[in-house]
Amino acid sequence: MRIDKPFPLPASLAIKPLAQLTDAALASVYRVVMAAEIPHFAALTLAARPFEPGITPVPVAGKFLDAAELHNMVEAALDGWLTTGRFNNAFEERLARFLGVKHLITVDSGSSANLVAFATLTSPQLGERAIQPGDEVITRLCRQHHLWLIEDCCDALGSTYQGQLVGTFGDIGTLSFYPAHHITMGEGGAVFTHNGTLKPLLESFRDWGRDCFCATGQDNTCKKRFTWQLGSLPAGYDHKYTYFHAGYNLKITDMQAACGLAQLDKLPDFIARRKTNFTYLHERLRACEEFLILPQATPGSDPSWFGFPITLRPAAGVSRVDLLRHLDQHKIGTRLLFGGNLTRQPYFQGRHYRVAGDLPNTDRIMNDTFWIGLYP
């Protein structure tokens, strides 16, 4: 479609000739005009297509966007504020409220969320509780030995155990907003905690390792920027460039946060649909339980299911790879349960590590498990 003239101005805005408007007022007019066109664009590009069995692919996951996400992202682009800004602030506040936690910061992926969470616990500011080289990662023993607990909830947003949201039991929780996950920013993640001591450390590791806590684009909010003397730096050394940790730059853009903010409006429905899809598949595959191990929720839990894992029993009489090829031929997407037995991955060859036992269940999952999609 070719456009030969500018968009017509809505009647509600035709108050006086455009030539009489200030640049700021004219920019506001154009924002309104562009926003008015977004639903039409979304209807053309994002509308659902009819499903044709055997022809329409059934992916394991994917993004679900409509005009709301596009509107927010256009607004963020027009702001021209490309790092974290007003949309990120609103997203962090709303997601923290949903989870019921005091502190939440965004990062650029779920992997970065785990990196920031673990790195934070190495901070010397934690004294004797700081993680040291040679310390081990173990599970289900934290309370007994007064250890740190990190909950990786990247695939489980909205799941509960005994009525409490996962991610809120431990010291730090992490989330991912990759397109396959419960809400998406394209790329993105979050780290959250109840612990006020950990909050500035999380921010420091995300933001280059700096000690400064000024928001992006702001300076000297403490009114002491040039009055510090820290480490062996000269007196008055700029606090904005004082580093307490070997940190990273893992912030997201405000356009990503704008997309995520619109996704939060859909989150309750996304969770409900995932549960509905799980129930549907479980009921339809129950007749095959002689050949398949179907997933079961942990007692006391109410999962916001990420995918539908299936494990072949010996009675199935078919190899997993042959079944996956068959499903692929019929346009049904499948995935393995991530890395399987990680000690068998090429990366682990020649590495120093130890394991408890010979990991028979891990090997079983590596050889016989796959999953299909539940996304809304």
Could you please describe the fold and organization of this structure?
The chain has helices at residues 23-45, 67-79, 86-99, 110-120, 142-145, 198-206, 254-285, 320-329, 360-368; strands at 103-107, 150-152, 160-161, 164-165, 172-176, 189-193, 292-293, 301-302, 307-312, 335-336, 369-373. The chain has a 4-stranded mixed beta sheet with strand order 1-6-5-2, with helices on both faces. It is α+β, with helices and mostly antiparallel strands and 376 residues long. It contains 9 helices and 11 strands. A hairpin with a 2-residue loop joins strand 3 and strand 4. The model is unreliable at 1-6 (pLDDT under 50). 33% of the residues lie in helices and 10% in strands. It is flat and about 75 Å long.
Keyword list:
single chain; 376 residues; alpha+beta; four-stranded mixed sheet; 9 helices
Radius of gyration: 25 Å
Parts with pLDDT < 50 across at least 5 consecutive residues = 1-6
Query: How are the strands of the largest sheet arranged?
Result: 1-6-5-2
Listing every helix as H and every strand as E from the N terminus to the C terminus, the arrangement reads HHHEHHEEEEEHHEEEHEHE
What is the share of helical residues? Answer: 25-40%
Largest sheet report: 4 strands, mixed
Which structural class matches the secondary elements? alpha+beta
What global shape is seen?
flat
Write down the oligomeric state. Answer: single chain
Query: How many beta-strand elements?
Result: 11
Number of helices: 9
* Mean of pLDDT: 91
Tell me what portion of residues adopts beta-strand conformation.
Answer: 5-15%
How far is the N terminus from the C terminus?
Answer: 32 Å
